[in-house]
Amino acid sequence: MRRSLELGAYRPGNSPVHRAPLGLKAAGVVLGSLAMLAAAHPSATGAGALLTVLAYAGAGLLRELLLPLRLMWPVLLILGGFQLWQAGVWTAVAVTGNILVSVLAARLLVLTVPVPRLLDGVVGLVRPLRIFGADPERFGLALAVMLRSVPYLLGSAADVRNSAKARGLERSPRALAVPVVIRAVAYAQQTGEALAARGIGEPDRD
Amino acid sequence: MSTAPEPAATSLPVPSPETSASSLPSSRETGGGSSGAAPRAASRRRWGAADLSYIAVFAALIAAFSLVPGIPLAAGVPITLQTLAVTLAGMVLGPARGAAAVGLYLAAGLAGLPVFSGFTSGVGVLARPSAGYLLSFPLAALVVGLLVRVLLGRIRRVRFAVLFAAGLGTSFLVVHPLGIAGLMLNAKLSFPAALTADMAFWPGDVLKNLAAAAVAVSVFAAFPRLAPRMKPRRTRAHRS
Protein backbone atom coordinates (compact mmCIF):
# COMPACT_ATOMS: atom_id res chain seq x y z
CA MET A 1 0.00 0.00 0.00
CA ARG A 2 2.67 2.44 1.03
CA ARG A 3 5.00 1.54 -1.75
CA SER A 4 2.35 1.96 -4.38
CA LEU A 5 1.48 5.40 -3.07
CA GLU A 6 4.99 6.74 -3.30
CA LEU A 7 5.71 5.21 -6.64
CA GLY A 8 2.26 5.83 -8.02
CA ALA A 9 1.44 3.79 -11.08
CA TYR A 10 4.77 4.62 -12.71
CA ARG A 11 6.21 1.96 -14.99
CA PRO A 12 9.82 2.80 -15.76
CA GLY A 13 10.79 2.68 -19.40
CA ASN A 14 12.74 4.36 -22.12
CA SER A 15 10.21 4.50 -24.94
CA PRO A 16 9.52 7.66 -26.95
CA VAL A 17 6.31 8.04 -24.93
CA HIS A 18 8.30 7.92 -21.69
CA ARG A 19 10.80 10.44 -22.97
CA ALA A 20 8.30 12.93 -24.37
CA PRO A 21 8.13 16.14 -22.32
CA LEU A 22 5.50 16.16 -19.58
CA GLY A 23 3.87 19.36 -20.83
CA LEU A 24 3.40 17.92 -24.30
CA LYS A 25 1.88 14.69 -23.00
CA ALA A 26 -0.41 16.48 -20.55
CA ALA A 27 -1.60 18.93 -23.18
CA GLY A 28 -2.18 16.07 -25.62
CA VAL A 29 -4.24 14.10 -23.13
CA VAL A 30 -6.33 17.05 -21.96
CA LEU A 31 -6.94 18.64 -25.35
CA GLY A 32 -7.50 15.28 -27.05
CA SER A 33 -10.02 14.20 -24.42
CA LEU A 34 -11.81 17.55 -24.57
CA ALA A 35 -12.04 17.39 -28.36
CA MET A 36 -13.41 13.86 -28.20
CA LEU A 37 -15.96 14.78 -25.51
CA ALA A 38 -17.02 17.90 -27.41
CA ALA A 39 -17.52 15.94 -30.62
CA ALA A 40 -19.68 13.35 -28.80
CA HIS A 41 -19.71 11.15 -31.86
CA PRO A 42 -18.79 7.47 -32.18
CA SER A 43 -16.22 8.21 -34.89
CA ALA A 44 -14.40 10.64 -32.56
CA THR A 45 -14.49 7.98 -29.86
CA GLY A 46 -13.05 5.48 -32.31
CA ALA A 47 -10.25 7.86 -33.30
CA GLY A 48 -9.49 8.58 -29.66
CA ALA A 49 -9.43 4.89 -28.82
CA LEU A 50 -7.10 4.19 -31.74
CA LEU A 51 -4.68 6.97 -30.75
CA THR A 52 -4.72 5.86 -27.13
CA VAL A 53 -4.01 2.23 -27.97
CA LEU A 54 -1.20 3.31 -30.31
CA ALA A 55 0.32 5.43 -27.55
CA TYR A 56 0.13 2.51 -25.10
CA ALA A 57 1.76 0.28 -27.71
CA GLY A 58 4.45 2.92 -28.24
CA ALA A 59 5.13 2.93 -24.52
CA GLY A 60 5.21 -0.85 -24.45
CA LEU A 61 2.42 -0.89 -21.88
CA LEU A 62 -0.42 -2.62 -23.74
CA ARG A 63 -1.06 -4.85 -20.73
CA GLU A 64 -1.90 -1.79 -18.63
CA LEU A 65 -5.02 -1.21 -20.73
CA LEU A 66 -6.74 -3.92 -18.73
CA LEU A 67 -6.58 -2.52 -15.20
CA PRO A 68 -9.01 0.42 -15.60
CA LEU A 69 -11.33 -1.92 -17.46
CA ARG A 70 -11.27 -4.32 -14.55
CA LEU A 71 -12.10 -1.49 -12.14
CA MET A 72 -14.77 0.20 -14.22
CA TRP A 73 -16.65 -2.52 -16.06
CA PRO A 74 -19.67 -2.69 -13.72
CA VAL A 75 -20.35 1.04 -14.03
CA LEU A 76 -19.76 1.02 -17.78
CA LEU A 77 -22.00 -2.01 -18.23
CA ILE A 78 -24.90 -0.47 -16.32
CA LEU A 79 -24.46 2.87 -18.05
CA GLY A 80 -24.12 1.29 -21.49
CA GLY A 81 -27.20 -0.87 -20.95
CA PHE A 82 -29.22 2.10 -19.80
CA GLN A 83 -28.17 4.27 -22.75
CA LEU A 84 -28.82 1.40 -25.15
CA TRP A 85 -32.35 1.16 -23.84
CA GLN A 86 -32.93 4.92 -23.72
CA ALA A 87 -31.02 6.36 -26.66
CA GLY A 88 -29.79 3.62 -28.95
CA VAL A 89 -26.62 1.80 -29.69
CA TRP A 90 -24.49 4.70 -30.99
CA THR A 91 -25.09 6.90 -27.97
CA ALA A 92 -24.29 3.97 -25.71
CA VAL A 93 -21.01 3.38 -27.56
CA ALA A 94 -20.07 7.07 -27.58
CA VAL A 95 -20.88 7.72 -23.90
CA THR A 96 -19.18 4.66 -22.43
CA GLY A 97 -16.33 4.81 -24.93
CA ASN A 98 -15.61 8.46 -24.16
CA ILE A 99 -15.36 7.76 -20.45
CA LEU A 100 -13.13 4.75 -20.94
CA VAL A 101 -10.83 6.38 -23.49
CA SER A 102 -10.42 9.55 -21.40
CA VAL A 103 -9.55 7.52 -18.31
CA LEU A 104 -7.10 5.37 -20.25
CA ALA A 105 -5.43 8.35 -21.90
CA ALA A 106 -5.03 10.17 -18.58
CA ARG A 107 -3.62 7.03 -17.00
CA LEU A 108 -0.87 6.87 -19.59
CA LEU A 109 0.45 10.10 -18.10
CA VAL A 110 0.66 8.55 -14.63
CA LEU A 111 2.19 5.39 -16.06
CA THR A 112 5.03 7.09 -17.89
CA VAL A 113 5.96 9.96 -15.55
CA PRO A 114 7.27 9.44 -11.99
CA VAL A 115 5.15 10.99 -9.22
CA PRO A 116 7.73 13.60 -8.09
CA ARG A 117 7.95 14.95 -11.65
CA LEU A 118 4.15 15.10 -11.87
CA LEU A 119 3.99 17.03 -8.60
CA ASP A 120 6.70 19.39 -9.80
CA GLY A 121 4.54 19.94 -12.85
CA VAL A 122 1.58 20.92 -10.68
CA VAL A 123 3.70 23.27 -8.61
CA GLY A 124 4.78 24.79 -11.91
CA LEU A 125 1.15 25.20 -12.91
CA VAL A 126 0.52 27.19 -9.73
CA ARG A 127 3.33 29.60 -10.58
CA PRO A 128 1.28 31.80 -12.94
CA LEU A 129 -1.38 32.07 -10.21
CA ARG A 130 1.00 34.08 -8.07
CA ILE A 131 -0.64 37.29 -9.13
CA PHE A 132 -3.78 36.07 -7.34
CA GLY A 133 -1.82 35.48 -4.15
CA ALA A 134 -0.98 31.83 -4.65
CA ASP A 135 2.43 30.79 -3.44
CA PRO A 136 3.97 27.89 -5.36
CA GLU A 137 6.62 27.19 -2.76
CA ARG A 138 4.23 26.92 0.14
CA PHE A 139 1.97 24.87 -2.11
CA GLY A 140 4.90 22.55 -2.78
CA LEU A 141 5.61 22.38 0.94
CA ALA A 142 1.98 21.50 1.68
CA LEU A 143 2.13 18.75 -0.96
CA ALA A 144 5.30 17.39 0.62
CA VAL A 145 3.79 17.36 4.12
CA MET A 146 0.66 15.68 2.74
CA LEU A 147 2.69 13.03 0.93
CA ARG A 148 4.58 12.32 4.13
CA SER A 149 1.42 12.07 6.24
CA VAL A 150 -0.56 9.61 4.12
CA PRO A 151 1.41 6.46 5.11
CA TYR A 152 1.15 7.40 8.79
CA LEU A 153 -2.60 7.92 8.57
CA LEU A 154 -3.11 4.73 6.55
CA GLY A 155 -1.22 2.81 9.22
CA SER A 156 -3.23 4.52 11.93
CA ALA A 157 -6.50 3.65 10.14
CA ALA A 158 -5.43 0.01 9.83
CA ASP A 159 -4.56 -0.17 13.56
CA VAL A 160 -7.87 1.35 14.56
CA ARG A 161 -9.76 -0.95 12.24
CA ASN A 162 -8.11 -3.99 13.82
CA SER A 163 -8.90 -2.90 17.34
CA ALA A 164 -12.47 -1.99 16.35
CA LYS A 165 -12.85 -5.43 14.84
CA ALA A 166 -11.66 -6.96 18.09
CA ARG A 167 -14.48 -5.14 19.87
CA GLY A 168 -17.02 -6.07 17.21
CA LEU A 169 -17.32 -2.47 16.02
CA GLU A 170 -15.96 -2.82 12.50
CA ARG A 171 -19.23 -1.54 11.08
CA SER A 172 -19.38 1.65 13.07
CA PRO A 173 -17.97 4.57 11.06
CA ARG A 174 -17.69 6.49 14.30
CA ALA A 175 -15.55 3.89 16.06
CA LEU A 176 -13.33 3.72 12.99
CA ALA A 177 -13.01 7.46 12.43
CA VAL A 178 -12.73 9.11 15.86
CA PRO A 179 -9.29 7.76 16.89
CA VAL A 180 -7.85 8.30 13.41
CA VAL A 181 -9.04 11.91 13.23
CA ILE A 182 -7.88 12.73 16.77
CA ARG A 183 -4.46 11.30 15.98
CA ALA A 184 -4.42 13.23 12.71
CA VAL A 185 -5.11 16.52 14.51
CA ALA A 186 -2.36 15.80 17.04
CA TYR A 187 -0.01 14.87 14.22
CA ALA A 188 -0.85 18.08 12.38
CA GLN A 189 -0.14 20.14 15.49
CA GLN A 190 3.22 18.43 16.02
CA THR A 191 4.14 18.88 12.38
CA GLY A 192 3.12 22.53 12.52
CA GLU A 193 5.27 23.08 15.59
CA ALA A 194 8.20 21.29 13.98
CA LEU A 195 7.88 23.45 10.87
CA ALA A 196 7.55 26.65 12.88
CA ALA A 197 10.54 25.74 15.03
CA ARG A 198 12.62 25.51 11.87
CA GLY A 199 11.12 28.67 10.47
CA ILE A 200 9.60 26.77 7.56
CA GLY A 201 6.27 27.69 6.06
CA GLU A 202 5.76 30.90 8.01
CA PRO A 203 4.75 33.99 6.11
CA ASP A 204 6.81 37.13 6.43
CA ARG A 205 6.17 39.07 9.57
CA ASP A 206 6.52 42.67 8.64
CA MET B 1 13.52 27.40 -12.53
CA SER B 2 12.63 30.89 -13.59
CA THR B 3 10.77 32.99 -11.14
CA ALA B 4 8.75 35.83 -12.50
CA PRO B 5 10.20 39.25 -11.78
CA GLU B 6 7.89 40.04 -8.96
CA PRO B 7 9.20 42.76 -6.66
CA ALA B 8 7.97 41.30 -3.41
CA ALA B 9 9.29 37.79 -3.89
CA THR B 10 12.92 36.91 -3.64
CA SER B 11 13.81 34.80 -6.63
CA LEU B 12 14.23 31.27 -5.45
CA PRO B 13 13.91 28.06 -7.39
CA VAL B 14 10.70 26.18 -6.81
CA PRO B 15 11.67 23.17 -4.76
CA SER B 16 10.63 19.75 -5.79
CA PRO B 17 8.18 18.43 -3.25
CA GLU B 18 10.38 15.70 -1.86
CA THR B 19 13.23 18.04 -1.06
CA SER B 20 11.30 21.10 -0.09
CA ALA B 21 10.79 20.14 3.54
CA SER B 22 14.49 20.31 4.17
CA SER B 23 15.63 23.00 1.80
CA LEU B 24 12.92 25.60 1.98
CA PRO B 25 14.00 29.03 3.03
CA SER B 26 11.98 30.38 5.84
CA SER B 27 10.17 33.46 4.85
CA ARG B 28 7.83 33.89 1.98
CA GLU B 29 5.59 36.67 0.95
CA THR B 30 2.12 35.38 0.52
CA GLY B 31 -1.35 36.59 -0.01
CA GLY B 32 -2.83 33.79 2.00
CA GLY B 33 -4.44 31.31 -0.40
CA SER B 34 -1.93 28.63 -1.23
CA SER B 35 -3.70 26.10 -3.38
CA GLY B 36 -5.53 27.08 -6.52
CA ALA B 37 -8.83 26.25 -4.89
CA ALA B 38 -8.15 28.32 -1.81
CA PRO B 39 -10.98 30.71 -1.24
CA ARG B 40 -10.68 34.43 -1.14
CA ALA B 41 -11.88 34.65 2.44
CA ALA B 42 -8.46 33.57 3.64
CA SER B 43 -6.53 36.41 2.13
CA ARG B 44 -7.32 38.61 5.10
CA ARG B 45 -5.08 36.65 7.39
CA ARG B 46 -1.89 34.90 6.42
CA TRP B 47 -1.52 31.24 7.04
CA GLY B 48 1.39 30.23 9.22
CA ALA B 49 3.15 26.89 9.52
CA ALA B 50 0.42 25.55 11.82
CA ASP B 51 -2.32 26.30 9.27
CA LEU B 52 -0.24 24.84 6.47
CA SER B 53 0.29 21.70 8.51
CA TYR B 54 -3.43 21.34 9.30
CA ILE B 55 -4.27 21.75 5.61
CA ALA B 56 -1.68 19.21 4.48
CA VAL B 57 -2.54 16.61 7.14
CA PHE B 58 -6.28 16.88 6.48
CA ALA B 59 -5.62 16.50 2.75
CA ALA B 60 -3.72 13.36 3.69
CA LEU B 61 -6.62 12.27 5.91
CA ILE B 62 -9.04 12.54 3.00
CA ALA B 63 -6.59 10.51 0.92
CA ALA B 64 -6.28 7.85 3.63
CA PHE B 65 -10.06 7.62 4.06
CA SER B 66 -10.46 7.33 0.29
CA LEU B 67 -7.98 4.46 0.14
CA VAL B 68 -9.01 2.27 3.08
CA PRO B 69 -11.64 -0.29 2.13
CA GLY B 70 -15.24 0.82 2.65
CA ILE B 71 -17.33 -0.24 5.63
CA PRO B 72 -19.77 -3.02 4.73
CA LEU B 73 -23.31 -2.02 5.60
CA ALA B 74 -26.19 -4.33 6.35
CA ALA B 75 -27.29 -4.24 2.72
CA GLY B 76 -23.84 -5.39 1.64
CA VAL B 77 -23.02 -2.13 -0.11
CA PRO B 78 -19.80 -0.68 1.27
CA ILE B 79 -19.68 3.00 2.09
CA THR B 80 -16.39 4.83 1.85
CA LEU B 81 -15.21 7.30 4.44
CA GLN B 82 -14.06 9.81 1.81
CA THR B 83 -16.97 12.22 2.15
CA LEU B 84 -16.78 11.85 5.93
CA ALA B 85 -13.25 13.22 5.83
CA VAL B 86 -14.28 16.04 3.50
CA THR B 87 -17.09 17.10 5.84
CA LEU B 88 -14.75 16.88 8.83
CA ALA B 89 -12.16 19.07 7.13
CA GLY B 90 -14.76 21.82 6.84
CA MET B 91 -16.15 21.30 10.34
CA VAL B 92 -12.83 21.07 12.17
CA LEU B 93 -10.62 23.45 10.17
CA GLY B 94 -13.25 26.00 9.24
CA PRO B 95 -14.31 27.13 5.77
CA ALA B 96 -11.04 28.52 4.38
CA ARG B 97 -8.55 25.96 5.62
CA GLY B 98 -11.05 23.15 5.09
CA ALA B 99 -11.60 24.09 1.46
CA ALA B 100 -7.85 24.46 0.99
CA ALA B 101 -7.28 20.97 2.41
CA VAL B 102 -9.81 19.46 0.02
CA GLY B 103 -8.39 21.52 -2.85
CA LEU B 104 -4.91 20.23 -2.06
CA TYR B 105 -6.21 16.66 -2.04
CA LEU B 106 -7.88 17.16 -5.42
CA ALA B 107 -4.80 18.86 -6.89
CA ALA B 108 -2.56 16.02 -5.72
CA GLY B 109 -4.94 13.41 -7.10
CA LEU B 110 -5.42 15.14 -10.43
CA ALA B 111 -1.66 15.52 -10.70
CA GLY B 112 -1.22 11.77 -10.50
CA LEU B 113 -0.78 10.85 -6.86
CA PRO B 114 -2.89 7.70 -6.42
CA VAL B 115 -5.17 9.13 -3.72
CA PHE B 116 -8.60 8.68 -5.27
CA SER B 117 -10.60 5.60 -4.32
CA GLY B 118 -9.13 2.40 -5.70
CA PHE B 119 -5.68 4.03 -5.93
CA THR B 120 -6.70 5.79 -9.12
CA SER B 121 -5.37 9.19 -10.04
CA GLY B 122 -4.95 11.69 -12.81
CA VAL B 123 -7.20 13.94 -14.82
CA GLY B 124 -9.04 10.86 -16.09
CA VAL B 125 -11.32 10.96 -13.05
CA LEU B 126 -12.89 14.09 -14.51
CA ALA B 127 -14.32 11.99 -17.33
CA ARG B 128 -15.97 9.53 -14.97
CA PRO B 129 -19.66 9.73 -14.15
CA SER B 130 -18.77 10.50 -10.53
CA ALA B 131 -16.65 13.57 -11.35
CA GLY B 132 -19.32 16.00 -10.13
CA TYR B 133 -19.16 14.60 -6.61
CA LEU B 134 -15.39 14.90 -6.52
CA LEU B 135 -15.42 18.49 -7.74
CA SER B 136 -18.14 19.46 -5.28
CA PHE B 137 -15.93 18.55 -2.31
CA PRO B 138 -13.97 21.80 -1.89
CA LEU B 139 -17.18 23.81 -2.06
CA ALA B 140 -18.80 21.39 0.38
CA ALA B 141 -15.99 21.89 2.90
CA LEU B 142 -16.33 25.64 2.49
CA VAL B 143 -20.10 25.64 2.97
CA VAL B 144 -20.15 23.23 5.90
CA GLY B 145 -17.36 25.18 7.56
CA LEU B 146 -19.28 28.42 7.16
CA LEU B 147 -22.53 26.90 8.43
CA VAL B 148 -20.80 25.41 11.46
CA ARG B 149 -19.02 28.66 12.27
CA VAL B 150 -22.20 30.69 11.99
CA LEU B 151 -24.48 28.25 13.83
CA LEU B 152 -22.10 27.16 16.58
CA GLY B 153 -21.28 30.78 17.24
CA ARG B 154 -24.87 31.21 18.38
CA ILE B 155 -26.05 27.85 19.63
CA ARG B 156 -24.08 26.09 22.31
CA ARG B 157 -26.36 23.40 23.66
CA VAL B 158 -27.08 20.92 20.91
CA ARG B 159 -23.72 20.78 19.20
CA PHE B 160 -24.26 17.34 17.74
CA ALA B 161 -27.57 18.28 16.15
CA VAL B 162 -26.15 21.52 14.78
CA LEU B 163 -23.16 19.75 13.24
CA PHE B 164 -25.37 17.05 11.77
CA ALA B 165 -27.78 19.59 10.29
CA ALA B 166 -24.91 21.60 8.80
CA GLY B 167 -23.40 18.47 7.26
CA LEU B 168 -26.63 17.15 5.85
CA GLY B 169 -27.67 20.58 4.61
CA THR B 170 -24.37 20.93 2.78
CA SER B 171 -24.79 17.50 1.22
CA PHE B 172 -28.11 18.42 -0.26
CA LEU B 173 -27.21 22.00 -1.14
CA VAL B 174 -23.83 21.31 -2.71
CA VAL B 175 -22.74 17.70 -3.13
CA HIS B 176 -25.86 16.13 -4.60
CA PRO B 177 -26.72 18.92 -7.07
CA LEU B 178 -23.17 18.97 -8.43
CA GLY B 179 -23.04 15.18 -8.42
CA ILE B 180 -26.25 15.05 -10.44
CA ALA B 181 -24.84 17.66 -12.83
CA GLY B 182 -21.78 15.45 -13.30
CA LEU B 183 -23.92 12.41 -14.02
CA MET B 184 -25.94 14.37 -16.57
CA LEU B 185 -22.82 15.76 -18.25
CA ASN B 186 -20.48 12.76 -18.21
CA ALA B 187 -22.91 9.88 -18.39
CA LYS B 188 -25.42 11.82 -20.53
CA LEU B 189 -28.24 10.86 -18.20
CA SER B 190 -31.52 12.74 -18.15
CA PHE B 191 -32.34 14.62 -14.95
CA PRO B 192 -34.80 12.00 -13.60
CA ALA B 193 -32.33 9.20 -14.31
CA ALA B 194 -29.46 11.09 -12.68
CA LEU B 195 -31.62 11.90 -9.67
CA THR B 196 -32.54 8.24 -9.31
CA ALA B 197 -28.89 7.23 -9.46
CA ASP B 198 -28.04 9.92 -6.92
CA MET B 199 -30.72 8.73 -4.49
CA ALA B 200 -28.75 5.52 -4.01
CA PHE B 201 -26.27 7.61 -1.97
CA TRP B 202 -28.84 9.18 0.34
CA PRO B 203 -29.00 6.57 3.13
CA GLY B 204 -25.22 6.31 3.33
CA ASP B 205 -25.05 10.07 3.30
CA VAL B 206 -27.27 10.41 6.35
CA LEU B 207 -25.16 7.83 8.18
CA LYS B 208 -21.93 9.57 7.22
CA ASN B 209 -23.16 12.95 8.40
CA LEU B 210 -24.24 11.43 11.72
CA ALA B 211 -20.74 9.99 12.03
CA ALA B 212 -19.11 13.27 10.99
CA ALA B 213 -21.06 15.17 13.64
CA ALA B 214 -20.08 12.63 16.30
CA VAL B 215 -16.42 12.74 15.27
CA ALA B 216 -16.40 16.54 15.22
CA VAL B 217 -17.88 16.65 18.74
CA SER B 218 -15.09 14.31 19.90
CA VAL B 219 -12.41 16.37 18.17
CA PHE B 220 -13.72 19.61 19.69
CA ALA B 221 -13.74 17.92 23.10
CA ALA B 222 -10.17 16.72 22.68
CA PHE B 223 -8.90 19.96 21.14
CA PRO B 224 -11.06 22.79 22.52
CA ARG B 225 -9.03 25.39 20.67
CA LEU B 226 -10.33 24.08 17.37
CA ALA B 227 -13.95 24.51 18.38
CA PRO B 228 -15.72 27.57 17.05
CA ARG B 229 -16.08 29.97 19.94
CA MET B 230 -19.14 31.88 21.01
CA LYS B 231 -18.87 35.41 19.77
CA PRO B 232 -19.55 37.87 22.60
CA ARG B 233 -19.79 40.84 20.24
CA ARG B 234 -18.65 41.11 16.72
CA THR B 235 -16.28 43.98 17.51
CA ARG B 236 -13.65 41.65 18.94
CA ALA B 237 -12.61 40.28 15.58
CA HIS B 238 -8.95 40.94 14.96
CA ARG B 239 -8.78 42.36 11.50
CA SER B 240 -5.72 44.25 10.49
Kindly describe this structure.
- The complex is a heterodimer of chains A (206) and B (240).
- Chain A has 206 residues and is an all-alpha fold.
- Helices cover 78% and strands 0% of the residues of chain A.
- Chain A has nine helices and no strands.
- Chain A has helices spanning 2-7, 16-19, 22-39, 42-59, 66-87, 89-112, 115-126, 136-166, 173-197.
- Chain A is globular and about 60 Å long.
- The mean pLDDT of chain A is 86.
- Chain B has helices at residues 17-23, 49-67, 82-93, 95-111, 131-152, 159-186, 191-199, 202-222, and strands at 71-72, 78-79.
- Chain B contains eight helices and two strands; from the N terminus they run ααββαααααα.
- In chain B, strands 1-2 form a two-stranded antiparallel sheet.
- Chain B has 240 residues and is mostly helical.
- Helix content of chain B is 56%, strand content 2%.
- At the A-B interface, helix 3, helix 5, helix 6, helix 7 and helix 8 of A face helix 1, helix 2, strand 1, helix 3 and helix 4 of B.
Helix fraction bin of chain B: 55-70%
Mean pLDDT of chain B: 78
What is the subunit arrangement here?
A: heterodimer
Element-by-element helix/strand order of chain A? HHHHHHHHH
Most extensive chain interface and residues per partner: A-B, 99 and 94 residues
Please outline the helices and strands.
The complex is a heterodimer of chains A (206) and B (240).
Chain A: H1 2-7, H2 16-19, H3 22-39, H4 42-59, H5 66-87, H6 89-112, H7 115-126, H8 136-166, H9 173-197
Chain B: H1 17-23, H2 49-67, E1 71-72, E2 78-79, H3 82-93, H4 95-111, H5 131-152, H6 159-186, H7 191-199, H8 202-222
Antiparallel strand pairs in B: 1-2
Helix pairs in contact in B: 2-3, 2-4, 3-4, 3-5, 3-8, 4-5, 5-6, 6-7, 6-8
Task: Describe this protein with a few key phrases.
heterodimer, A: 206 residues, mainly alpha, 9 helices, B: 240 residues, two-stranded antiparallel ribbon, globular
Provide a quick synopsis of the model:
The complex is a heterodimer of chains A (206) and B (240). Chain A has 206 residues and is mainly α.
